[in-house]
C-alpha cells in the first residue's frame, strides 16, 4: 500500500494524472475494473443551501485503506453517505463497483448496499436485540439461510473479540464493544467495501487503536476500507494514505 | 424451495415478534374486526334465513285458482295456460288435494274421513305460476273472470312487505358493514403504524444493510392479515355460539314455532359460506389496513 495508489483531485490541484491515464488504453480499461469507488466532479448542495462538497473527484482501488480527515462539518459524512446511497449528488457521478448510484432506486439500491458494509459513529445497534441478533440481523435482512447464518456468526464475533458477549444486549456493553459489534455487523456479509464513519469518535485511545487494528486486519484479507476521522493522532500512527477534506474540497495530506 | 423455507422462517418470526410488541393494540384491532364481522355474519345469516322463511309461506309467484264445484281442472287448464303472464298451469284434482290434506292432518283412514264429511269437500284447483311478482295481482284479477273459477288466492301483501323489509335490512347491514370496515381498517392501520414507528431504527438499519422493501414490510402486512383473520375466527365462534343458543331455546317452544324455526338450520352450503365470507372480509380488512400503514414509510 502506498499513498500513490490513491489519487485525489481538487479544484486547487487541477487534474493530476491518475495511475492509469497516461498508459495504453487497454491498461486503462484494466485499471477501471480494479477501481471500486469513483467520484467524478461531484458537488453536493443540501436543500437549505449548505454546500457540503464542491467539485470533488476521487478514485479508490480495490484493497486500499484510506483515511479521510477534516474538521467536523467539512463534509466527511456526506462523502460516505454518497457512497452508500444515503444522499444523492447534486451534480457529478458516483460509481461503486462500476455501478452508478444516482440512478439507483428501491431494490437495485438494496442490492448495491449489500456490497457495502457501513460502521456508524453512533453504532446504530438495535437496543432490544442481543449482540448475536444484531449481527445476524443483517444476514436475515439479506435473505441468508439459517445454516449459513450460523456458519458466519462465530468467526465474525471472534474477529472483533466479542465471542463471549454474544448474548449481551447493547446497553450492557461499553462504547468500544458496541462499536466492535457495529463492525461485526458491517462485515458479516463479507462486503468488498467497508465504510467507517468516525468509528473512533466516541472512544478512548486504547479502544480507538483496537478498532483501527480490526479494520487493518480486514484490509489485509482484501476488503477495501475507507475511514473518516478527525483524530489526527490516530492518522499519524498509521502508515496509510490520508486525504483531507476542507470546506468541501479534497487535499492529499499524506 | 430452500429459499422459500428460509423466507417463511424469517417472515413468521418477524410477524410473531411484531404481534408480541403490538400488545394491547392487537386487542383493539382484533376486537374491532370481531365486532364488524359478528354484525356482518349475523346479518348475512339473518337475510338467508328470512329468505327461507318467506319461501315457506309459498312461492310469491304462485297463484292458486279454486274452481266451482263440479268443474274439472283438466278442462280449464289449457285456457289458463294461454293467458298472458302465465308460465305454467298445473291442475290438481280434488282427489289429489284431499288425500294430501288427509295425510297432512295425520289421518290414516281416508275412506272413513270422506264418509264422515259426506264426500270429498274440496274442489279442483289449478296452480298457476306467474312471470313476475308484480304481475301477480293483475293476473289474479284476470283469473277471477274466467268461467268456472270460484276463488283466487295468492301470497298476500304481508309476505310482500316482509320481502321488502328483508331488502331494506340488507341495505342497512351493507351500510353498517361498510362503515365498520372503514373503522376496522383505521384501527389496524394505527396499530401497525405504531409498531412500524417503534421499530423504525431497525427499519433504518435494514434499509442501510440492503434489505429490499418487500422484505422489510412483508412482516407488517402479514401482521395485519393475522389480526383480520383472528378477528374473523373469533366472530365465527360467537356466531356459532349464538346460533346454538337460539337453537336450544327454540327446541323448548311449541310445535308451530319449531316448524317456523326449521328453516333456521343452516344448510351445508351456508355453513361453509359463512366462515369463508368472514375470513375473506377479515383478511381484506387486515390487508388493506396494513398496506395503508406501511405505504407512507415504504414510499420514502
Task: List the topology elements.
The complex is a heterodimer of chains A (254) and B (300).
Chain A: E1 7-9, H1 25-33, E2 35-45, E3 51-61, E4 65-69, H2 76-84, E5 91-96, E6 99-100, H3 106-113, E7 116-119, H4 131-141, H5 146-159, H6 175-187, E8 193-197, H7 205-220, E9 224-229, H8 232-237, E10 242-246, E11 249-252
Helix pairs in contact in A: 4-5, 4-6, 6-7
Chain B: H1 2-22, H2 24-56, E1 62-67, H3 73-81, E2 86-92, H4 94-105, H5 110-116, E3 125-130, H6 136-145, E4 149-154, H7 157-198, H8 200-208, H9 213-251, H10 255-261, H11 268-298
Helix pairs in contact in B: 1-9, 2-7, 2-9, 2-11, 7-9, 7-11, 9-11
Through-space gap between termini of chain B: 32 Å
Number of strands of chain A: 11
Major beta sheet summary of chain B: 4 strands, antiparallel
Helix content of chain A: 25-40%
The succession of helices and strands of chain B, N to C, reads HHEHEHHEHEHHHHH
- Using the alpha-carbon principal axes, give the shape of chain A: globular
Category from helices, strands and their pairing of chain A: alpha/beta
Please give a quick description of this structure:
The complex is a heterodimer of chains A (254) and B (300). By secondary structure, chain A is of the alpha/beta class.
Question: If you had to describe this structure to a student in words, what would you say it looks like?
Answer:
The complex is a heterodimer of chains A (254) and B (300). Chain A is α/β, with parallel strands linked by helices and 254 residues long. Chain A is built from eight helices and eleven strands. Chain B has 300 residues and is of the alpha+beta class. Chain B has two domains: 8-57 and 160-298, no CATH class; 62-154, Alpha-Beta Plaits. Helices cover 73% and strands 8% of the residues of chain B. Chain B is built from eleven helices and four strands. Chain B has a four-stranded antiparallel sheet. In chain B, helix 1 (2-22) crosses helix 9, helix 2 (24-56) runs antiparallel to helix 7 (157-198) and helix 2 (24-56) runs antiparallel to helix 11 (268-298). Chain B is elongated. The model of chain B has no long low-confidence stretch (mean pLDDT 81). The chains are: A alpha/beta (254), B alpha+beta (300). Chains A and B meet through helix 3 and helix 4 of A and helix 1, helix 8 and helix 9 of B.
Amino acid at each position: 500500500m502506498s499513498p500513490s495508489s490513491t489519487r485525489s483531485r481538487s479544484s486547487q490541484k487541477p487534474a493530476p494524472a491518475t495511475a492509469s491515464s497516461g498508459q495504453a488504453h487497454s491498461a486503462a480499461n484494466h485499471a477501471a475494473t480494479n477501481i471500486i469507488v469513483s467520484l467524478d466532479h461531484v458537488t453536493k448542495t443540501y436543500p437549505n443551501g449548505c454546500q457540503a462538497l464542491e467539485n470533488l473527484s476521487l478514485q479508490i482501488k480495490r484493497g486500499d485503506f484510506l483515511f479521510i480527515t477534516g474538521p467536523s462539518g467539512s463534509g466527511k459524512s456526506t462523502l460516505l453517505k454518497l457512497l452508500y446511497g444515503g444522499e444523492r449528488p447534486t451534480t457529478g457521478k458516483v460509481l461503486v463497483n462500476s455501478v452508478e448510484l444516482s440512478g439507483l432506486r428501491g431494490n437495485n439500491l438494496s442490492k448495491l448496499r449489500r456490497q457495502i458494509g457501513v460502521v456508524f459513529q453512533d453504532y446504530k445497534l438495535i437496543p432490544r436485540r442481543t449482540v448475536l441478533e444484531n449481527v445476524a440481523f443483517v444476514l436475515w435482512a439479506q435473505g441468508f439461510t439459517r445454516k449459513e447464518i450460523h456458519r458466519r456468526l462465530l468467526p465474525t464475533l471472534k474477529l472483533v473479540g466479542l465471542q463471549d458477549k454474544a448474548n449481551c444486549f447493547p446497553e450492557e456493553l461499553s462504547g468500544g464493544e458496541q462499536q466492535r459489534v457495529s463492525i461485526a455487523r458491517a462485515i458479516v456479509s463479507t462486503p468488498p467495501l467497508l465504510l467507517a464513519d468516525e468509528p473512533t469518535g466516541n472512544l478512548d485511545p486504547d479502544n480507538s487503536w483496537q478498532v483501527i487494528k480490526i479494520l487493518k486486519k480486514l484490509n489485509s484479507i482484501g476488503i477495501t476500507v475507507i475511514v473518516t476521522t478527525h483524530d489526527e493522532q490516530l492518522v499519524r500512527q498509521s502508515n496509510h494514505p490520508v486525504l483531507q477534506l476542507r470546506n468541501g474540497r479534497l487535499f492529499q495530506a499524506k | 424451495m430452500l429459499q422459500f423455507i428460509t423466507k417463511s422462517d424469517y417472515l413468521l418470526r418477524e410477524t410473531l415478534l411484531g404481534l408480541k410488541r403490538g400488545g394491547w393494540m392487537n386487542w383493539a384491532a382484533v376486537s374491532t374486526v370481531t365486532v364488524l364481522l359478528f354484525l356482518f355474519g349475523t346479518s348475512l345469516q339473518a337475510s338467508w334465513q328470512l329468505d327461507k322463511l318467506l319461501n315457506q309461506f309459498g312461492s310469491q309467484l304462485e297463484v292458486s285458482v279454486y274452481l266451482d264445484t263440479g268443474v274439472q281442472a283438466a278442462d280449464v287448464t289449457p285456457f289458463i295456460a294461454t293467458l298472458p303472464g302465465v308460465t305454467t298451469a298445473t291442475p290438481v284434482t280434488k282427489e289429489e288435494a284431499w288425500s294430501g290434506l288427509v295425510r297432512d292432518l295425520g289421518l290414516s283412514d281416508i275412506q272413513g274421513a270422506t264418509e264422515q264429511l259426506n264426500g270429498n269437500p274440496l274442489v279442483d284447483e289449478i296452480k298457476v305460476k306467474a312471470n313476475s311478482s308484480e304481475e301477480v295481482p293483475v293476473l289474479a284479477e284476470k283469473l277471477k273472470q274466467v268461467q268456472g273459477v270460484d276463488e283466487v288466492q295468492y301470497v298476500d301483501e304481508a309476505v310482500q312487505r316482509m320481502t321488502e323489509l328483508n331488502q331494506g335490512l340488507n341495505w342497512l347491514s351493507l351500510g353498517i358493514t361498510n362503515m365498520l370496515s372503514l373503522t376496522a381498517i383505521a384501527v389496524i392501520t394505527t396499530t401497525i403504524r405504531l409498531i412500524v414507528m417503534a421499530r423504525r431504527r431497525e427499519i433504518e438499519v435494514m434499509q442501510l444493510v440492503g434489505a429490499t422493501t418487500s422484505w422489510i414490510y412483508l412482516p407488517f402486512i402479514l401482521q395485519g392479515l393475522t389480526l383480520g383473520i383472528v378477528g374473523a375466527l373469533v366472530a365465527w365462534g360467537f356466531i356459532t355460539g349464538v346460533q346454538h343458543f337460539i337453537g336450544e331455546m327454540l327446541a323448548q317452544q311449541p310445535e308451530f314455532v319449531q316448524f317456523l324455526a326449521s328453516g333456521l338450520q343452516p344448510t351445508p352450503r351456508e355453513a361453509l359460506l359463512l366462515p369463508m365470507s368472514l375470513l375473506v372480509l377479515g383478511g381484506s380488512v387486515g390487508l388493506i389496513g396494513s398496506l395503508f400503514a406501511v405505504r407512507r414509510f415504504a414510499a420514502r
